[in-house]
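Issue: copy button drops trailing tokens. Both records pasted manually instead:
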Amino acid sequence: MFVLFEEAGKYLGGRVLSEAEASAQVELDTGKRVKVKGANIVLRFEKPAPAELIGEARALAATMDLDLAWEFASEGEFGFADLASDYFSDKPTLAQQAAALFALFEAPHYFRRAGKGRFKKAPAEILQQALAAIEKKKVVQAQIVEWAGQLGEGICPQPIREQLYKILFKPDKNAPEYKAVVDASRATQRPPLELLERAGAIDSPYQFHWRRFLFENFPKGTGFPALSAPAIVDDLPLADDVQAFSIDDSQTTEIDDALSVQGLGSGTVTVGIHIAAPGLALTPGSAIDQVARARMSTVYMPGHKITMLPDDVVSTYTLLEGGDRPAVSLYARFDEATLELQSTETKLERVPIVANLRHDQLDAVVTQPWLEDAAFTNGDTPEAAAKLRAPLSFLFRLAKQLKAQREVVRGKPENFNRPDYNFRLVGNDGEPNGSEQVQITTRQRGAPLDLIVSEAMILANSSWGGWLGELGVPGLYRSQASLAPGIKVRMGTRALPHAGLGVKSYAWSTSPLRRYTDLVNQWQIIAAARHGKTAALAAPFKPKDADLFSILSGFDAAYATYNAYQGGMERFWTLKYLEQQGITELEATAIKDIPNGALVRADTLPLVFPVAGQQERGARLRVKLGEIDEIALDVHGTVLERLDAPKADVAAEEEGGDEEEEEVAGPIAIAVDLTDSEAAPENTPA
């Protein structure tokens, strides 16, 4: 005897070997023996063989009209044999009974299961909804097939183009656009990114990187809502005898900081560090604050930037030359001969800004000899710089002293052996399109104007950080426990030492127009300036304030993302420079071992890339460049020759200080998974 039975949602057939009261031992066609509950057996028969019966029944079930079967079915609960009698004949054959069973079982939108072999037809309104959903799914599946075919032919359908970045990086895996990409990638055996690039979905490598960044970080665009900058209502005193000047690049519009020098020749010199004061007008929770907090920082990239604050707001508080500008000022008094720091004082005031000096226009003029020897001449010195020669000379002398003092605390000198690279896109006005001619120039780190500004800012950030700590006012600090390998710079709300800089504490406070941490710290500093020892009670953010921790974590994440994008875009334009200049070989220095090769740093460009073959660290090499991939930001090299003699002892790794080692770009990580399961059968309810 044979039986047809249900097992784990499937119907199987087999020969009965033995049978007890509530179960049977059944042998399947495969030879496997299973124990089957009696309640799961739905048909018993002598012939034909189970496989023959099941094959005939399934073919017959495929021809059944489910709408007609639903009409014939009883209103109450019924068995499959009952339906077979109504649909086929009064005395249905074994195959017809099995066909009715299979049809009922596999059409849950028409018939609800009510037990083993028992069913109940679905209500008419539910059935119509299910059928409509199935029809809709068929239409969608047909669309998926059409789109996948077009992608395979090198054509990108518009809906896929419009959702490109969502498909690649934050996909809805049930969306037809996503499924079409997966199906086309499988059919053509091409990686999804290559498939889409060949189909023209990516306008250009530059646009790919730019729009991906916007999609992930500025999904609503980079524009600002209509906002007006509130006026500073404080009756601020005018700084006495101060002639302040800023030092920035020509592209800088957010002029956060300026310097002044008083008392030259008197024995005591007062250095003023004047910071733009949006914190005097903006308040936590205001509309402008919400915009700044959402962005956390200005985003920089070659030829373009996305500002933290609207241009109108920036222009209201920036330290533009030619007027008295509201500022939070730190006055540091030094012995003119020994440069010993005697005292510091913080004031809220209006500061006359007499000049906005620019690095790129003055670096060749304001040199170390020009600053250290009053008789030295250096071509045509701009009038603004000539008038400020004495203050600049003192500031340079002071900067060298401050740096030397920090290096004593650090335990070793800071490493400035690599230049800073400046990128200029020729003819660029506004958002680049990726085709601009790029110029890359260098400025050696630690150049006099750089040193003057950086040491003044370190002095201000460390002084204000320590002052807030003494008053018990929390702030947003950067700290580093030591210079030991693996000890990184961290952010926190307590005044802790920064070993990399060699200071007791360091709170970013000098760029409130560009960094949200600095604006937050400025609010705390303003409270300290106004209330002194009771500032902790009046400051906007109190100790252990949950909101302060939220800002810290949000800033940390955003700042890392923005820096990574800036680095990626600088790498893009460096690769573009290689192409535009026809550079196929570079001189480079090996900096790190990697599996099957080494990382090298180009000697004259901001580019780190891998070469094949192990290389001695510090070795100077001539390298032939391979094919450039502007999407992956990738290029590999082959060593042509070594340019220096092998060393007996490999030097210790150069210090990284507060910087992270450059990452080498690799394949773009996308979220398209080609192992996603195939689309569900068309007759499955949505």
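Record 2 (pasted manually too):
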Amino acid sequence: MNLKLHFFLFGAFLLACLPVFAQKLTGTVTSGGQPVMAGTVKVVPTGTGTITDADGKYSLTLKAGSYQVSFSAIGLEKKTVSVQLAAGEAKILNMDLAASAEGLKEVVVVGSRGGGRTKLDSPVPVDVLRMNQIGETTAKPDLMSQLNQAVPSFNYNKQSGGDGSDAIDFASLRGLGFDQTLVLINGKRRHLSAFVNQVGTRGRGNSGTDLNAIPEAAIDRVEILRDGASAQYGSDAIAGVVNIVLRKDIGTLNVNIGGSGYYDHKYNTLNNVDPTQYYTGSQVDGKTFTLGMDYGLAIGKNGGFINFGGNFMDQGKTFRAAPDTNWSTNPKALGVDAWRRAFGDGSVKSGGGMYNMEIPLAGTKTTFYSFGGYNYKHSNVYAWTRRWSSSSNHIKFPTDENGKLIFVPGIMRVFDPTPGALDTANVYYNPQEDVYIKDMSAALGFKGTIGDGWDWDLSNNTGYNDFHYWGNKTFNASLPLPEQYTKTRFNDGGFNFLQNTANLDVTKHFERVAQGFTLSFGGEYRYERYKLYAGEPDSYRNGGALLNGVPKASGSEGYPGYQPTDATTANRTNEAAYIEGTLDVTKDWLVDGAARFEHYSDFGGVSTFKLASRYKVSDNFNIRGSFSTGFRAPSLQQMNFSNTNTNIIAGELVYAKLIPNYADAARQVGIPKLTQETSTNTSLGFTWKPTHDFNVTVDGYLIKIKNRIVITGAFDTSVAALKDYLIANNVSNANFFTNAVNTTNRGIDIVLDYRKSWGKNKFTALFAGNIQGITINKVNIPAALNDTYAHQQAYFSTREAAFLKASAPAEKFSLGLEYGYGKFAAGSHITYYGKLTTQGFGYSSLPGANPDGPGGANTSASGNGWDPYVDLDNGKGVVPENFVFHGKATTDIYVSYKISKQISWTVGVDNIFNVHPDLAVTEGAHQSSWGDSESGGPFDAVQMGFNGMRMFTKLALHF
């Protein structure tokens, strides 16, 4: 879809909506001169309504007539006025609301079922982020990267060279796993992705929720509960909860159009001394177009509504490499990155929408509600490079009967080409992986009040995710001729996940118990199904072709298809019951307690509890803390996933098998069945509001987790129980899912929020920081694998430990500043990402070490990453192969201008100083460690990203 068609569709949409732009009622809601954000404006008798934006502004489209318009906001007194609109009239109605005793504060719904509470009065830390606050002033086009910048304890790493991990983004809180954070939509459990991260990626062994499948245009706000909440919300809430609240706007059309592109004037592959060594794009790459729309309609005359929001994104590839690869002229050059000649972000095209609907039933205290949506994504990424210059790679290329290379134009490339001749030694190609993701959901329910104030909510929520691989511009070199070179696209198969959740929640507030008591209880029934389906036979089979008598590599290069032996369908059910009580012991002291029991059909039951409290030391200073137990059941993805993939071992591409945990091979090796992860979560902090304009929150946490699920290292034929299996399946090594480690996460979150308005001036400053660390307390090595150092390291190596500890930087701080005057505003985001360290595979040994012990020749020299060592460039010994990424800061700037009351325009630059993470090399051993990182490229996956400076412009329209 080209840009002209985008604008044509946009224009058609506007024309279709013109009939509703007849009578306009607009204005600003304030309190004491300060704008009221998220205030409610409701019109009687139509039931039409809307919510004020960050500047307190609202806009309504009405028919001509007389109305009663009410204005309200949490902590402020409600006001109702009469309004008369004539045909074609546009009227401005401003309203100033008096503050109640509580004052103007943001209210959240996660963290406690004891009614909505302000961020400062909540017994646990909660962030509330408005989409118009975080989305309009950054080049970042998707929800995941926007939250990564705005919330320091939010962890997210963009992958390159990680197969499916390049196509989907997961995130978590406080340095924990992707699947240890629960995601809700309007307070209802969101389904997981069908995808699970494999070896070679961050978060290996974890699945997660695809937040980018939720269109930003449909989102009103995001509430992030930074505290363990398994007892309240169930499995996966060990680290906390992300609750996405959908829009309820009525009568307002919101349109956001954006464009951006990276201008990396240092590491773009076009700046290399020999660009033919790499895939290249343009000097401004990763060009992105985004379009978001939202509109709401009133339903009936009792306040019913339906709101629609949708997004489209088209993002191009990026190409990155070290600029100088000429060792003859520069001794500090890093050499050609032969394994990753196409390193960078893949391309993405995605689009989808969601609706949010509520219909009060006339004459009753019951409301019907429903929400859901659909999202489609196509991602194209490059796998690792296949090069003819490596003789062991010849079996991965199409060849004729004499073993000579068959050159395929359009797929294969030649670096440093010899004029008039094909220098086959310089031929390479990068397989491509197309990933198609379909995500859909639908929830419906009834809520109301019965009896003496008993609130109830009965709902059913269904979610589905399908993840489908295709190999593109690649080969199965084992096929007979001519298919070896004529068949270049393969259906590799995929997997999908279905989740259906039914809930009943009941809440009652008792005003006469102490200073108020809220009792909540309910139940949940959940059905889950996971299906892995095989690809076409040519995507995985060995076609029998030989090269000099040696069988050629089977399966499509890049990502071999799933085999019939991998295919599986698994399902399970879960029943849960919970009870929660929130007691205001006094006007100053709040206590909240919860208990939950869950039973899974596949591994049994578990109980959890939580106790949280908040005490008001003064009117503006609160102390809060909590203690809870938590759990996370192994996902069906972790229990049933299986595939054959390519890994780098000792500098060669080899086939590795990820064997499902339930298989007999796992028991023969000594790996036990998966069990639930369990945790304890302790937090203590305070909130302080020294002035009306300034808020401070500080919260420390201690999270201990037992039996964290990871993927083991590589087991080869030296494990007698696996030898026959590996030979029979034509693979070199195998991995398994296992409950490998016990960990402790410690940290502190700090938020300082200052907002001031005077006259036409407005100034905001938001500082947020996270300081954290991870300790591995124990490695749960099965007795059968605790016999040799090699087996211990194969189970969970020192290298895997380093990656687990690098789940999040040691520090992450963000500072957002904005000054506005009249129609103009200018601002900056400064984000600091602290130090972290990962390791390479290692190809040298520590002199004098026991060959079978730490650093010995039989471990690190094999390239398995066990105590990895590499040779110094000066030839004077070896050093540990550590990749140290020092702390660095990025600076974003923007300027916005309100062209009119309905249109605003923003331009800016993210990472204006083109800051990059450190190169993935070991200091003093550049030549031997270069290309040995997890990504194989110049940079590893770290939160700050590696693409450099990004320019953007955005246009926002509100009618």
